Structures are given as C-alpha cells and as structure tokens.
Amino acid sequence: MGFFEVIDHTADWALRVYGRSLTELLIHAAQGMNFLMATGLDAIPLTETRQFELDAYDAEGLLVEWLTELAYWAEAESLVFTEFEMTAVSPTHLSAIVRGGTAVELQKHIKAVTYHNLEIVQTDAGLAVEIVFDV
Amino acid sequence: MKRGDFKRITPYIYEIPQAFRHDMRVPARFYADGELLAMALDDKSLDQLVNTATLPGIVKYALAMPDIHQGYGFPIGGVVATELPDGVISPGAVGYDINCGVRLLGTHIDREEIAPHLDKLASALQANCPSGVGRGGTIHLKRHELERLVEQGGDWALKNGYATRMDLERTEENGRLHGADAGKVSDRAFKRGLDQIGTLGAGNHFIEVDVVDEVFDETAAQRMGLFPGQIVVQIHCGSRGFGHQVCTDYVRRFQKVVHKYGIHLPDRELVCAPLSSPEGQDYLAAMKAAANYAFVNRQVLTHHIRRSFEETLRRKVHNHTVYQIYDIAHNMAKVEAHEVDGRTMQLLVHRKGATRAFGPGSKELPDVYRDIGQPVLVPGSMGTASWVLLGTAGSMAQSFGSTCHGAGRTMSRRKAKKMVRGHELRVELEERGIHVRAGSMAGFAEEAPQAYKDVDRVIEVVHGAGIAKKVARIVPAAVVKG
C-alpha cells in the first residue's frame, strides 16, 4: 500500500489516499496535494512554521478543513509545507505544527477541496479515501 | 448507467425516468445526440445528474446540457430549478468559481488590418492582464473598499473609471446583483480577494483574440456589431479566490445544516438549505457578493485589454476602440419567473456550467437585444471555434431559459498531460497562425483540444433542440493563458 495515488477525473484532479490511522491519512493526503501543486518538493526549505487548530463536524470534514488550510497558504503566500507534526488528532479536531517554505513555482492552483462522495473507508490494510480537488 | 436507461424524447432529448432511482423527485433530461450520450456514459456525469434530481423542491426536470461532464456533486453542464419559498439553494450546485463567465468584446478592425500587429498585441495582453497560479493584480484594495466593490459590482467599476455605461448595460444583471452582503462573507474570502481583482487565474481561463469566421443570423449579428473577418476578444474567468472561499465556507456550514432541515442526499457536495431559511439567505447574499466580484474582475480585465489595444494599435489601425457585446455568467443561482405547465412560478435556477439564455421579449435584457433575445457566449476548447448564440422562446419553454456553456471535457487532465506535450501543442497552434502566450506548459497541455468534445457538435444539439440559435462562429487568432 502506497501513501497516495492520482486517479482519473474528467474535469479536475483526484487522489486516492491511504493511511494506517487517521493521523497518517491526513499526512499522506497533504503530501498527495503537495505532489499535485508543486514540483521540486525536496528543494523547499524549512524556513516557515505554522500551528493549526482545526475543528470539523466529522473526520471527512476534518480532512477537507486540513487540506483547505494548506491550499490557502499555497495560494496566499506560495507556502508549501512538507513536514507535519500532528500533536493531537480526533475525528473532529486536530492540532498540528507544520514546516515548509516558499515554492519556486506552483504548477497547479487548488481552487477548493470538495466533499464529493467523500468517505473514509476502513479496509484490511487501514483507512482509504478518495478526494476530488477543484482546479 | 447504460444506454438502455434513457428514453429518447426527441432527436436531441434523452430522458431518465423518475422511476430509475427511488430517491429521484423528478425525471432527468439530457440534451444530446447519440454520440454525445455515448461519450457522457464514459464518466460519472449522468450519475451526478440523477443525484441532482433528488434535491428538495426541484421542479419539472433535472437538466443537463450537451457539454456535460463529470464535476463534483453537480455535473458541469447542469441546470436545476427549485420552487420558492422552500425549495433549496445549494452552494455546490453553483460551484466554487461563482459567476465564472464569458465576456465578448467587439472591435472595428478586421483580420487583415490587425495582422502585422497581432504578435505585439498578444504580448501586451499577457503583460497587462496578470495570469497564472498565485499571480496578484495591479489593483490593491483595502478591506473596506473591497466590501463596497462586492456590494456594488459594476457600479463600483463605473465610479472608479473601469467601466462605461454601455459596458454595464450589456452585462447580465448590469453587472450588479442586488442584495449582496459583505457581512455574510468570511475574513478569509476578503483576504484571498484583496489583490486578485483584474486577474485571470489559471486552469481553463483565458483571454482570446478571435476572428468572426461565419455569420448565421445577419440581423442579430448586425445588432451586436459582428461582421465576417472582424476581430473580437473573449474573456473567460470568474470570482477567483474570493468566490472559491465563499463556496468552501458555505459547503462546510451546510454539512450540519442539512441535518437540521432533515435533508437526505446521495452526495455530501450537494449540501443545501431551504432558500427561505436563514442559512439559505446568508449563502444567497454571499454568493451575490462573489458574483459581483466576478463581474468587476472581467470589467477590470476589459480595462486592461483596452489599454493593450491603445498601446499597440493606436494610430496603426483606423479605430482601435473596443466595445462590449455581452457578458454572461455560467456558474450562478438566480431567482427568476418561469412558466411551468401553464403557471408562472418563482424559481431559484441553479446553472453550473450552463448559461442563461433568455428569449426575445425578456424584460431582463437591455433595449438593444430585447427583441432578438439574449446573446449567449460559448467558448470552445483552446485552438478551436467558439460560438455566439441567442436565447430563444424554446429555451424559455424547455430549459428554464438556459443553454450550454462550452465544449465540455471528455478526457481527464492526467490523460491529456500524458498524451500531449505543452511545447508541441504550442508549436502546432502557432503553425496554424494562432499566437500563444502561456504561463505554464503543463497547464497548457491539460487544456489541449483533444481533451474536449467538438464544440460544433454541442452547438448543433442546442440549435437543433431549439434552446439557442446560431448567430456567429468565431475562430482564435491569439490565446493568452495562465
């Protein structure tokens, strides 16, 4: 089982993400979104740190909140976070410290993270979810 | 879904009966020919259409236009009308790019006259119209000024010297949706919107210099000032980060709200609330603010385009002025009166990837177009034709005054990127005489014409079905993309 894979969607971009736990699923989803957004991820310096406290109605909502927050920083300040320290995660709340820096070039603008058919499912190997991004 | 699930009503209308799925409240209708139906069956777009037929308060049919393709929640190319006061409003049924739309500008010059200057004009357009991921504009507003802008729309642009009266008269709703309320919009939306006025963005958005290739309706073309060989300009873009954030905020808020109103949906992206509810009213006021943002965005881009014409063509052509033909939205929800089964009803018409197409005599149209019908602007895929159409009595009778909005994708971005190299595509277009200015070559490849349906075929369907009428076909001369 990989961390994530890009799956076909006619108009937008979509990812299938895997994780052994919700925490891991959140991290892999962020890494997947980074993969769509930017090239040269390894070259992004760890010069910026942000702390997030996010709440949601349920785990799927939390996933959308989390990715939406990260996409916002990419749009607003070209900041791409590549290190994720999840200090507390429950299905309706997360605390995280993230580190990253300015991407030289963003190749994709994520307009939004959608709830389209969003469902975190339990598989034999752990959790899986498909996420559609509006681009 | 399969071909057998559809009943052919006319050569251009296919119906999925209400009995197809237990939760459908109305049948679903798809404007298509046999081939477009087969193409639509390749992805999930028609399943998404059926999902929209479950929305509370939906009237008559869930509709899909021939350029339908898979979206998220609502299909792109969908039209859903709900009955007031308690029919629902759904942020996902408008989409993230609220009032994404198209503007068509006319000029007094023809292909021969512009030819020696076209390359310079393309460069000036690229330099003056900021585009691409994360690119801000040249207008930096304070928060209180942006609040005024989103409440006043086109009137703000007029007051600040970016618009003429004629521009606004020839814009859907005169470029201003009344009832927009900045107080219903989040701080983050304002933050995202502060420096993006007058910017194109990325994705499928573009500015294109076109040539009128063929005129099909002389009278209507003359009224719009169109003639064969004429240079015209299209703008395709929307409400940028401001609109995206408004939709994100309300899709989030409505996740809880659906439970409050006992609404059960097949897809969480379709979340909605009765229009009469406080939440429904809040979203409508915020959506209107985003729609006004988009009208001003296209208006400021028009200002930049005029500047580019001035810089490159002044004293080089006989008349370098640029005038507005029309501006329309294709992602919007609006309260409109429509006749349904012989009764006039107040409806909330959601159009997502669909264009308003009001017929002759509609009071919402400016004097210049009232007797011929509303101009409808349908951009094709990059490098292919686009169309100018008119709304008809047929669109009023059949489709809540709506028609198609584009060619419609048929291939995923991932496949397009694998199949097409951006640089090769650029060379191919340039060999055909089209001047190309593009920021990202990867993004350029995703928009390759091979990834879209044939726009001419889409137009044959809406024309044949009577939900729009051909006026003119235009072809590209220069393309500017993010």
List keywords for this structure.
heterodimer, A: 135 residues, alpha+beta, Archease, Possible Chaperone, Chain: A, domain 1, five-stranded antiparallel beta sheet, three-stranded antiparallel beta sheet, 2 helices, 8 strands, globular, B: 482 residues, tRNA-splicing ligase RtcB, eight-stranded mixed beta sheet, 17 helices, 19 strands, 34% helix
- The total domain count of chain B is 1
Oligomerization state of this entry?
heterodimer
Order of helices and strands of chain A: EEHEHEEEEE
How many strand segments of chain A? 8
Query: From the helix content, strand content and strand pairing of chain B, which structural class follows?
Result: alpha+beta
At the fold tier of CATH, the topology name of chain B is: tRNA-splicing ligase RtcB
What's the main sheet of chain B like?
A: 8 strands, mixed
Regions with little confidence, pLDDT below 50 for 5+ residues of chain A: none
Number of domains of chain A: 1
Percent range for β-strand residues of chain B? 25-35%
Largest interface: A-B, 36 and 42 residues
CA-atom Rg of chain B in angstroms = 21 Å
Q: What is the H level of CATH, i.e. the homologous superfamily of chain A?
A: Archease domain
Query: What count of helical segments of chain A does DSSP give?
Result: 2
Structure, described:
The complex is a heterodimer of chains A (135) and B (482). Chain A is 26% helix and 41% strand. The two termini of chain A are 27 Å apart. Chain A has helices at residues 22-37, 59-77, and strands at 4-7, 13-19, 48-55, 79-90, 93-102, 112-113, 121-123, 126-134. The model of chain A has no long low-confidence stretch (mean pLDDT 93). The longest helix of chain A has 19 residues, at 59-77. The model of chain B has no long low-confidence stretch (mean pLDDT 95). Chain B has 17 helices and 19 strands. Helix content of chain B is 34%, strand content 26%. Chain B is an alpha+beta fold and 482 residues long. Classes of the chains: A alpha+beta (135), B alpha+beta (482). Chain A binds chain B through residues 6, 8-13, 56-58, 60-61, 64-65, 68, 72, 74-76, 78, 105-109, 111-118, 132, 134-135, and chain B through 43, 45, 69-73, 76, 92, 95-97, 133-134, 188, 191-192, 201-203, 241, 244, 247-248, 251-252, 255-256, 267-269, 271, 409-415, 440, 442-443.
